[in-house]
């Protein structure tokens, strides 16, 4: 069997265009015999760095196989390898840095949290590598292997550190804060965004972070991993010929996009004895049939609002164990106000060929924000809230008051609604 393993190791030592299925199978079935060879390959890469023969591939496969075997003894050597200078890391493991490195680190982690911490803070280590280390730490927290206060304190050290670090790391910090449901760390997210440390095309803004915090979560790192499954689809290997994307496929894709975003062309007729679409449970004739239409119903139907609230945090009406909900932190009234603001300001990914006229967009925003303001004004008056900051601290969710009120004032000025504009201005002046 040892001879068979040695041959398999030899077969994956040099780069090849065809993925080595059989050698991977043999090594996987005899991992105890294979591990010393894999460790030696990592040590060889560390020693030779960029002088390593460019066709030598064993160290690269070793990284994945040791992750699959969850070989804890290899963790220090793997950390040493990925902590080499940028050029060496890129030469030795290439795209692994941005794909599966966090999974490999998590599966080989040996309990040395201080090594991870010091490496994340080390500016000489590649930013993408440090981000993978952060991901591994995030998964360790989710597993209960890393204490909450310790992890949060570590994140704050990075956020409030005077020296700037790469935007990729700041982006990863935001994702980790949200994946770990650290609601108390929203100030840190605001700090990162306010300082312009994240590109807008990566994270559009604070509202997107709120959605990430309260919506479905997935594990940050995968376990267990299968090295062959992760690698065989890489472009470095010959791949089965893919079916060409035909004109019909393109038409079907565009049709599906249209169906997702187009406005309903027909209004569904509601019978007098049908259940009322407002959800009250009453018959339509005993509920909303003769009620005057609300302003927001003039700009969009209930169906359209549900579509654009698809990514809004889910309601706590059907709770799942271990999940957090907006209702755990905010009352129903503040959530209702926030939804109106969200409908007005949240980015809508509409295809360019279906784009709305600018005046229609402005009208929709003005109507939603006007309704939000009326409810906001009632709430601050009833509760004796004295300042905008006080309201923000207690009730603002996706948007701070000044963000949406300034937009509303501009829209009211443009529409000539001087009466409501005066109310808004006076309310803000008093606060």
Question: What's the topology here?
Answer:
Layout (H helix, E strand, L loop, with lengths): L1 H10 L9 H9 L1 H18 L9 H11 L6 H8 L3 H8 L7 H8 L4 H8 L6 H17 L4 H12 L7 H13 L6 H9 L11 H9 L12 H5 L15 H15 L33 H5 L2 H7 L23 H14 L12 H26 L4 H7 L6 H15 L2 H13 L1
Helix pairs in contact: 1-2, 1-3, 3-4, 3-5, 4-7, 7-9, 8-9, 9-11, 11-12, 11-13, 18-19, 19-21, 21-22
Overall description:
The chain is an all-alpha fold and 431 residues long. It has 22 helices and no strands. Helices cover 57% and strands 0% of the residues. It is elongated, with a radius of gyration of 28 Å.
Q: What general outline do the C-alpha atoms trace? A: elongated
Span between termini: 80 Å
Biggest sheet details: none
User: Which regions have little confidence, pLDDT < 50, spanning 5+ residues?
Assistant: none
Helical proportion, percent range: 55-70%
Rounded average pLDDT: 91
* Beta content: under 5%
C-alpha Rg (nearest Å) = 28 Å
What is the string of helix and strand elements? HHHHHHHHHHHHHHHHHHHHHH
Structural class: mainly alpha
How many distinct beta strands?
0
SS field, number of helical segments? 22
Short summary:
The protein is mainly α and 431 residues long.
Summary keywords:
431 residues
